[in-house]
Design goal:
This protein has about 100 residues and is mainly alpha-helical. It contains four helices and no strands. The chain has one domain. The N and C termini lie far apart (about 45 Å).
């Protein structure tokens, strides 16, 4: 870092890019328990499915952020995950929703 020569704006952008990736991996770990489950067969496919899941959660969160659509009354990532774990019908609805307005 001491030899990194650039403008403050570019340096700021690099830091933001880094933390976007870290935040995404945090969500992968917390929402899909990625670190606890090791895929011995087809790990790349499992990785794609985990990413798909987190993206579905994010789309649902963006669409219903200020609305009370979950049983807990809050629309946050953890409650979306919890609802999917306990209600198969909600998981199916999540996949079938149209996110394009």
């Amino acid at each position: 870092m001491a030899n990194f020569k650039t403008t403050a704006k570019e340096f700021h952008q690099k830091i933001l890019q880094h933390w976007r990736v870290e935040t995404y991996h945090y969500h992968l770990n917390m929402l899909t328990k990625e670190d606890e489950h090791i895929a011995h067969k087809e790990p790349f496919s499992i990785s794609i499915l985990r990413s798909f899941t987190v993206n579905l959660y994010q789309l649902f969160l963006n669409k219903y952020k200020d609305k009370k659509v979950l049983p807990t009354g809050k629309t946050i990532m953890a409650d979306i995950k919890r609802t999917c774990h306990y209600r198969d019908d909600f998981s199916a609805e999540l996949i079938e929703l149209e996110y394009l307005d």
